[in-house]
Design a protein that fits this description.
Blueprint (H helix, E strand, L loop, with lengths): L19 E7 L2 E2 L3 E3 L11 H4 L3 E3 L2 E5 L5 E4 L1 H14 L7 H14 L12 E10 L12 E10 L10 E5 L17 H5 L2 H9 L4 E5 L7 E4 L3 E6 L2 E5 L8 H12 L4 E4 L11 E6 L3 E10 L5 E3 L8 H15 L9 E4 L1
The structure holds pyridoxal-5'-phosphate and 2-OXO-4-methylpentanoic acid.
């Protein structure tokens, strides 16, 4: 029950909420929005989602502000990326206004699960779409289910805003050079599970993947993008095999606001020797500062933080993002939807 949740110590996990909202695409059109209090779905055992991976999802957050208002961060961008993921997997794109309406409805229906202001927690919104048509031959579905569920969450990496360590390995890729890495589909995460477990077992929070073609450049982390601060510049990988992160896009804008030049380009592993800060960034990760990056194949250890503390730029990013999301700082870029 919502009144029993220890908001300040919430992990990034699933907590049952009251309702989810659903919409079915059938006979060439999206149907009525349905509100459900069931956590289950009824799916044909031969559905394309189960056999051929026709599954895409999104992740965005709603926050309770200092003024008591509910704010959702950059929802239209998630709607746009969801459309791109659908197109990438030959699924039916969800109209952006339907996506937004259903996210807002799911938040409103579960208002009592929005963590209070100041707890560091938020209501995570997880839209997902699955192919429902039974197929044995490899072919796209013609029926799709779109669901928006929500769950209150705390920080993704243990300990919240403090340094975390990453590792590099050439043993695994999460995506192929011209594969599905830029789409938010379940298959990419399935592909990252073995390497992710290996990293966790060795004490790292995540793998920092290399570009899958040449294994020369940094790509992204299993659940987040990557950036570093080098010679006073914000540098972040340009790659076709990474997810275009909305958090990363926002940080590039904040960097420009702060007078920090931004470079989106190939970043070689060697460059890690000369960076003053690094972080994993994403909706779940926010901007998680990196202390050390270890190359498990060469044995090289890149010490990013010498004092064990998050760097000044990442700290300022974190504070600005938090302030915009809670209504303490003006939303000058039009990133916020206020839920009325
Ligand atoms: N990269 C991957 C693989 C992710 O799963 C995520 C999380 O959504 C991100 C990057 C960050 O994207 P965003 O900032 O839009 O949440
Ligand atoms: C998010 O940041 O929203 C994600 O989807 C990452 C996920 C692997 C938890």
């Amino acid at each position: 029950m919502a009144n029993e949740i220890d908001w300040s110590n919430l992990p990034f996990g699933y907590v049952k909420t009251d309702y989810n909202v659903r919409c079915l695409y059938r006979d060439g059109k999206w149907g009525e929005i349905e509100v459900s209090d069931s956590e289950n779905i009824n799916i044909h055992m031969a559905a394309t989602a189960l056999h051929y991976g026709q599954e895409i999802f999104e992740g965005l957050k709603a926050f309770r502000g200092v003024d008591g208002k509910i704010r959702i961060f950059r929802m239209e961008e998630n709607a746009r990326r969801f459309r791109s993921s659908a197109e990438g997997l030959l699924m039916e794109p969800v109209p952006e206004d339907l996506f937004c309406r259903m996210c807002i409805q799911a938040v409103k229906l579960n208002e009592r699960f929005i963590p209070p202001y100041g707890t560091g927690a938020s209501l995570y919104i997880r839209p997902l779409e699955i192919g429902m048509t039974p197929r044995v031959g490899v072919k796209e579905a013609d029926e799709y289910l779109f669901i928006v569920l929500v769950t209150p969450v705390g920080p993704y990496f243990k300990g919240g805003f403090r340094n975390t360590n990453l590792c590099i390995t050439r043993e695994y890729d999460r995506a192929a050079p011209r594969g599905t890495g830029r789409f938010k589909c379940g298959g990419n995460y399935a592909a990252s599970l073995t390497a992710g477990k290996m990293a966790h077992d060795k004490g790292y929070s995540a793998v920092l993947y290399l570009d899958p073609k040449e294994k020369k450049y940094l790509d992204e982390c299993g659940p987040a993008n990557f950036y570093a601060i080098k010679d006073g510049k914000y540098i972040t990988p340009a790659s076709d095999s990474i997810l275009p992160s909305i958090t990363n896009m926002s940080l590039m804008t904040l960097a420009e606001d702060m007078g920090i030049p931004v470079e989106r380009r190939h970043i070689t592993i060697d460059e890690l020797r000369d960076v003053s800060e690094a972080a994993a960034c994403g909706t779940a990760a926010v901007c998680s500062p990196v202390g050390e990056i270890d190359d498990l194949d060469t044995g090289e250890k890149y010490i990013i933080s010498r004092d064990g503390k998050p760097g000044p730029v990442t700290t300022e990013f974190y504070n600005r993002l938090s302030a915009i999301r809670s209504g303490e700082m003006e939303d000058t870029h039009g990133w916020i939807t206020i839920v009325e």
